[in-house]
Design a protein that fits this description.
This protein is an alpha/beta fold. The protein has 13 helices and 18 strands. Bound molecules: iron/sulfur cluster (2 copies).
Length: 328
């Protein structure tokens, strides 16, 4: 059965919400999962749009609070204190948005496909969640939407670290042809290939897996697993058995993520907003709308096929890639 994805603009967010059964959400405090942007990034969600969605939920007797987790890399969002400071800098305050803001460090382990993922306690304990996901490119996963908002954004920094470490390359000497492609695509210049020598500077390696994805000779394998596979699994750990409304902001589509201070340029014109109760369907619809205008634009800029997270997501039962787009 095809999942429904609603396609709307900023003035019809209330109308789009009317298509969901909100009864179970009413009179509950629910996490409004939102990446509030790293310091220096200019493409993160607009406070006026977030405010509109929050207001529309509050008008339906729902009590959302902005929610996000700390990150593994060294930046302001690495600590709760730093992230709270950043929420103020970016305008995500109670005074401005009209609801509480919570940043959480604690996690509860959930096993998916044989691996443990520490899900943020606030998500784990909530039966109902609203996910606001800004769709944009990403250095490791090609693009990021609803799956990434939970798969990386809904877990603790220890789990984030493990997911990245598991996507590091393991060199297979007998298969390497020393073509140099892995060194060319590595975004962190962590690999050097010279005549019959292959070297990696592990201190520079972020664990994005781009080198493994681009080696066509079997010269590299993942230390543990493809980051897009563990991303889909971690997303499932966060949302399985929960009632979630997914809202994708398909605008300001930059090459890089909102965690990247240097995420430019914008690589596709603005498209609009999508809503669904299926994270795989909404991300597939977002990607299709982008690729209708700019075919394979994320492969071009990030050297990664972002459809893998959708395929893996469908395989592990996170959602369905078959959808019907309804314009509101
Ligand atoms: S891309 Fe693969 S085959 Fe080419 S140098 Fe790197 S590891 Fe070797
Ligand atoms: S995993 Fe990413 S950062 Fe590490 S060597 Fe490969 S391409 Fe470079």
């Amino acid at each position: 059965m095809k999942k429904v994805v609603f396609f709307t603009d900023e003035n019809k967010i209330r109308e789009a919400l009317d298509n969901f059964n909100l009864k179970g959400f009413e009179n509950k405090k629910i996490p409004f999962k939102l990446h509030m942007g790293e310091k220096g990034n200019i493409y993160f969600p607009k406070t006026q749009t977030v405010k509109k969605v929050i207001k529309a939920l509050q008008e339906r007797k729902i009590e959302p609070f902005l929610f996000d987790t700390t990150v593994a890399y060294n930046a302001m969002r690495h600590t709760k204190e730093g992230y709270y400071e950043l929420t103020k800098m970016h305008g995500f305050t109670k005074e401005n948005i009209g609801c509480d803001v919570v940043i959480d460090d604690k996690g509860i382990p959930v096993k998916i496909e044989g691996r443990d993922y520490e899900v943020a306690e606030h998500l784990y304990k909530s039966s109902h969640i609203f996910a606001f996901s800004h769709v944009k490119g990403h250095i490791a996963t090609g693009f990021g939407g609803a799956i990434k908002n939970f798969g990386m954004g809904g877990v603790t920094k220890e789990t984030k670290r493990k997911m990245h470490h598991g996507s590091r390359p393991v060199f297979q000497k007998d298969k390497c042809t020393y073509c140099g492609v892995c060194g060319e695509v590595c975004p962190f210049n962590a690999i050097t290939v010279k005549e019959n020598t292959w070297n990696q500077n592990i201190n520079k390696c972020f664990g994005c897996g781009v080198c493994v994805e681009n080696c066509k000779n079997g010269g590299l394998s993942y230390k543990d697993a493809d980051i897009q596979f563990v991303l889909a699994c971690a997303a499932k750990a966060c949302v399985q058995d929960k009632n979630v409304i997914y809202f994708n902001d398909v605008n300001r589509i930059a090459r890089g993520c909102d965690c990247d201070p240097d995420a430019g340029p914008v690589i596709c014109p603005d498209i609009g907003y999508l809503m669904s109760d299926d994270p795989v369907a909404i991300d597939k619809a977002s990607l299709d709308l982008i690729y209708n205008i700019k075919p394979n634009v994320f492969e071009k800029y990030n050297h990664v096929n972002p459809k893998k997270q959708i395929i893996f997501g469908e395989e592990i039962g996170l959602g369905s890639s078959k959808y019907k787009l309804i314009e509101i």
